Amino acid sequence: MDDAPLSGFHKKLALYSSGGPFLDGYVLSIIGVAMVQITPQLDLSDSAQGLIGASALIGIFLGAFVGGWLTDKFGRQLLYTIDLIAIIVCSVAQFWAADPVWLFILRLLIGMAVGADYPIATSLLAEFTPRRYRGPLLGGLVVMWFVGAATAYVVGEILLSVGHDGWRWMLASATLPATIIVLLRHGTPESPRWLANKGRTDEAEAVLKQVYGPDATIVDLTAEEHENVDVKAIMRSGYGGRMLYISVFWTCSVVPLFAIYAFGPKILDALQLEGGLANIGEALITVMFLLGCVIALLGVNRMGRRTLVIHSFVWSGLALLLLGIFPHAPSGVIMTLFALYAIIIGGTQILQWIYPNELFPTEVRGSAVGLASSVSRIGAAVGTYLVPLALTSWGIGGTMIAAAAISLVGALVSVLWAPETRDLALHEAAALHPRTGGTAETAGRPASV
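-> structure tokens emitted (449 positions)
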């Protein structure tokens, strides 16, 4: 499995798995457009606007860990479609939401389903993908978040012209992509690694023959060394160090990004850009983040995971630091520094999907991805909330310096703990003490925290 050629099955699985990130970017972004009509129609207070806007984010925080635990216990295949069915039902129900309470509840449930899909889909993809393509295919999922966000802005602008009920159609519109993804995912086989881990070897071998041909057998599925770890004991086991690194690295990566993405026009306006450039800040930031992720995907196998994450943190942090030191630089300089940050940070973005899936064994892979995702969402929510306060208290210079400090903390912990898993088979990367592979020495580093 680890040395198999990339097949049509792998490409389809990567495409279908990208539906979760697409829906994440879509549902989190389209609410911003819909709020233009929702606020006056439902007479929302400032606090109600904040809660509805953050409801899906809160749901993702809750759903990511629960989904990870469920997929480790009951398998990847079943939950691979159930979570999206929940999105369809709740999205349709939003059309008839008559008060802010129900709207908050429905978007909370949608967020939980989206969050649950993270560990489910990424675990399934990681456990099927050959080592040579594992990084690019897993990292490529984050690109679809930005595609979903961009699609939401386009759809939202079109549906604003429908009339006063345009917001209802906007929120219900997530039903269409979710339905398409469910239909595409139907029939996806269960992970043979998970089946073998549960002792269901006959089923595992049947899946191997289905995907890799009649000559494939269970012998081709290299057994993992069971580290006797479960989700309750994960922080006390040797994997606690890995979880600490993943959580810190992921949080340092998303806090500045989410804050800058959410308040891009406001931040660009505070930097006193000329010629109305602040008005196109949101669109420009989206394009630059997307470009950065694509570039990182092209380099993740050439540079390796460890080199990519360190350089991504260091140079993007320096771009933010220069923005903080020179907040009144010419407009061209400001825009260049912002573009550099958005492009260079792409390395840490794609590794959010790669590292967690490579560093944990099958029995807790989903739980580990879910837990790290949940922890990072706390940081993202807090960071986003604090941006307006920081702009008022510290000014734009101080705010950018604080964002740079967070990125440089990510660089420091990566220098200390980031492993290299590029050339390792999945079971080797997940083992606490790999016995093979040219980068085994660094692969165990996070466990020593």
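The first helix runs from residue 8 to 17.
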